[in-house]
Amino acid sequence: MRLGVWRSLVARSVRVGEVPSSNLGTPIDGDGDTRQCVPVSIRQKRGAPRLPSDASRILEGVLRAVLFDVDFTLFRPGLQLGSEGYRRHGERHGLVLDPELYEPARLAALDELQRHPELEHDEEIWIAFTEQIVLGMGGEPHASRDCAVDLVREWERHENFSLYEDARPVLDELKRHGVRIGLVSNGQRDLEEFAVHHDLGVDAAVGSRDHGRTKPHPSIFLEALGRLDVAAEDAAMVGDSPEDDIAGARSLGIRAILVDRERRFLDEPDRIDTLLALPAALGLSGSGVSGAGLAG
Q1: What region does 4 belong to: left with phi over 0, alpha with psi -120 to 50, or beta?
Q2: Is residue 264 located within the same domain as residue 173?
Q3: What is the CATH number of the domain that holds 119?
Q4: Rounded Cα distance, 225 and 237, in Å
Q5: pTM score, two decimals?
Q6: How many domains does the chain have?
Q7: Nearest to 129 by CA among 158, 153, 154, 149
Q8: What is the spatial distance between Cα 44 and Cα 206, in angstroms, rounded to a whole number?
Q9: Neighbours of 92 (CB within 10 A)
Q10: Which pLDDT score, from 0 to 100, does residue 42 have?
Q11: CA within 20 to 30 Å of 157's CA: 3, 47, 81, 210, which one?
Q12: Are 135 and 142 in contact (CB under 8 A)?
């Protein structure tokens, strides 16, 4: 049986290790695993104020919580997770990997691997996808899997990620408005420990490794909403994957905003190219950060 891989992982890997701009100006259904993910911290807050009547706003009623994807939404992976990182890890395993072959190898891996039919979290998916890239970069079969396992472990290291410059001020602004913040992510990391390591101060963190299902499965979003004690209509989802983040959230009635830092999805109706535009896009009045709202 062919293994699956999340489309978001595949789409994102092309950008791993690149040095992006600061982004400070412009730039389904079914019963899921109900295992609990204990929130990082629970803070008692007043509900957010009712939004003004404005046909251009995204949300209606009261915005009580915002769910965020993690990789390429709030955080950028470091260079060690890109083509040069592959090369260096190859050397440790006696492999000579060509960084120039990283991108074609990634595309070839995409052709061979598809999404898990039940959207179950499976570490083997990550390893198999990574191994195909190593092989495509010139790795020998006898050592490529061990190299892939080591590379996957690098994705679990909290210090291999850094916040985008526009993330912290926007998170602080949402907190100032009394909006609860949750993280929803596909990946191998312990998301609660990750949030603590980076001092995010979020109210809930639901990772696919502990939850057992990956986005866009409804249960992972519902788990986050339950941890935050909010209804779907009172929340928004913010992420960089049109399928995993945006379509997954909208299928449950959660309003969703696409973070399109590289302007790849210009036809998406609710999109921003910097998180600084998020408060305005959410209709939060008196925002303390500058942003132009929804991108055109």
Answers
A1: beta
A2: yes
A3: 1.10.150.720
A4: 11
A5: 0.74
A6: 2
A7: 149
A8: 19
A9: 11
A10: 32
A11: 3
A12: no
**Per-residue pLDDT, 116:** 60
Give the residue numbers spanning the domain of 200: 29-76+162-281
CA–CA gap between residue 13 and residue 105 (Å, rounded): 11
Q: Where does residue 169 rank: exposed (0-12), middle (13-18), buried (19+ CB within 10 A)? A: middle
Distance CA 38, CA 149 (A): 28
Which pLDDT belongs to residue 81?
87
Query: Helix or strand or coil: residue 242?
Result: helix
Question: Can you give the pLDDT at residue 83?
Answer: 92
Closest C-alpha to 215, from 180, 179, 191: 191
Whether 182 is in a domain gets the answer yes
16 occurs within a structural domain:
no
Q: Amino acid identity, residue 287? A: S
Token code pair at residue 88: 């260096």
- Domain for residue 257, yes or no? yes
Q: With contact defined as beta carbons under 8 Å apart, do 69 and 242 qualify?
A: no
How many residues does this entry show for the chain?
A: 296
Nearest to 202 by CA among 42, 62, 23: 42
Residues of the chain with pLDDT under 70: 1-61, 113-118, 121, 287-296
For 281, other C-beta atoms within 10 Å of its C-beta total 23
**Per-residue confidence (pLDDT) for residue 55, from 0 to 100:** 29
Q: SS3 for 149? A: helix
